[in-house]
Amino acid sequence: MTDKDKMERKKSFLEKYVKIIVVLAVVAGSSSGIFGAAISAPSMAIGFWRLTLGMPFFAVPVLLHQREQLKAIEKKDLLWTFAAGAFLFGHFFSWFTAVKLTNIASGVVLAALHPLVVLVVTVFVFHRHVGRRPVMGIVLALLGGVLVAGLDKSQLSSGNFKGDVLAFMAAMFMGFYFVIGNEVRRRVAGPPYVFLCFLSCWICFCIGMVVTKTPALGYSAHDYVLLVGLTLVCQIGAHAVFNLCFGYVDSLYVSAWESGESVFAIILSLIFLHQIPTSWEVLGAAVVVIGLLYYNYCTGLEEKARTEIRGNK
């Protein structure tokens, strides 16, 4: 089997099982809270090492085997790719800083709003049709996220205002990062896009380390071990996979499922931290799952209808 045949086989596998792969990537990404809570290093250092450790996995294969594809990327797409990396930097830094300044309930609710950003941009900027029933599924999933947070008004309002603003900004950054990735991946192959996007994010963290005078070394061995785990599971297993999937599935689908991260976070917290979920969290998780399954079912019906229309032409 030639290298070209292997690439085609890999692409067809990703295209065939892309929706399942997105869900698995969300499960991987949901562990970031556990890693973040256990790492004592500051937010800027966490992001810096997360990108520094992950970059070789993307840089080496692309620079060795796909340099021609890199050269072929148009200037417009290159600029948008670097913009996506900058938004990813904004998301990482805002989120890791937010959870240090506000309570988790406020942070989870606000940071889960990115599907609304993707929805607004998809409809009003790119003028693409989104059915009423898929939107209902997204809204139901977001309401479930509110239930997961507990619906405790005093708890939600007790968060530090600055932290709440940063959590909301994390959602905005995530939304734009997803939208840009979805558009650029229509024209740019997955590996080169992932490499350039993460390169942009890494450069932003390097500048941030210098500006904030955050030390890169001097943390505990425990922190560095956890940073390696964070890189492998969340950076490679989640964000890299999201970007590769954008070539085969819409950003709204990825964003909708990513909003269900809180459900998997509850399960992982129960397994690794032995944190027993509250009744509100169990109820909210059930609502999130129902909303996401309904969204997935409705989008599947719309895709089937579009396929039948194209087949009849």
From TrEMBL:
EamA domain mapped to chain residues: 20-148, 162-294
Keyword match NADP: no
GO cellular component, one term: membrane
Keyword annotations from UniProtKB, A to Z: Membrane, Transmembrane, Transmembrane helix
A Pfam family assignment: EamA
Top-level taxon of the source organism: Bacteria
SUPFAM superfamilies (alphabetical): Multidrug resistance efflux transporter EmrE
Protein name (database record): EamA domain-containing protein
Organism of this sequence: Hornefia porci
